[in-house]
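Quick one, T. Sequence first:
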Amino acid sequence: MIRNILVPVDFSEMSIQSIKTARRLARRFGASIHLAHVRQFDYASGFFLPAPPMDPFPVMTHEQDAEKNAAKDLHVLARECGVPLATCHILSGGPAFDETCRVAQKIPTDLIVMPTHGRTGLKHVFLGSTAERIVQHSPCPVLVTRRNALKSKNGTISTILVPVDFSDCSREGLQYAIGFANEFGARIILLHATYLGYIYSSDGMTLYDVRGLQEAARESAERQMRDLVRSVKFGHAKFGTVLTNCSPVLDICSFAKDNDVDLIITSTHGCTGFTHVLIGSVAERVVRHAPCSVLVVPSHPQTRMTDMPKVRGRTERRRRKQLKKASATAPQSNSAQFAYSKANKRT
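Structure tokens:
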């Protein structure tokens, strides 16, 4: 059941398209739409550019006016996009992904719909991706839309690609995909990549029968795929299976492009911390490179909700430490002192 849909909005054309996608899904599932805009501040800049002494109250009035104007713009955008009854949230203080996950937990949200800029290469290294960070930390499923997302008539979905690795996490993603497929009358394609990785020996002299290893891996994958199909109830949804031999991310994106897939539904193992740095996430890389929309179903959502206050506490302590360091190294005007005290009060 999808009852509440949250759409992070930065007033870009891509976020407007996400609102329209959320509107179609809300009509389909009878859900309510929540729009959220995050206003980010850089209080440290006030310490390096001190303003003339002034009464602190105009600073508070300026922030209140800015928040009021943002709320007004968000309500206007909601009416223009055909969702006048949407609930609008104006958030501020923390990073966009943290504030979005926080309000998603508070509502509570059943689905987050948001766009991605699709940055790759150096742009992704330096700027990162808010969508990927929300995918990593969100306690609920996240639908990351592309510019031409759900381009079929009336926003219908005809083909859903579901990558599986036969783990419990991928089974949860498949169950979610079955619900979507039965709702839209779509066909499901299960894809498994029998990727062996790099094969090498420590002495450089050992020989491997690579073809034999690949055949054994494929036979094992075929057997596990048959067992998976027999153990899952697809309802009225039609389905097919595909086995590939290359990298999962490349095969998923290539198959989606070559076969006009409307939506990819995948699960994430929820790797965080040092494990996430070393291994990364197939789901996040699919979000970055996929030619169509991607719906990511998080594994262990209750664990994520429990860990969110810990992550938020580390972020707040780091920001408080930066503010204290800046206050010790730069002169403060009355306005900067007021901003600093307000930031401390909020944290």
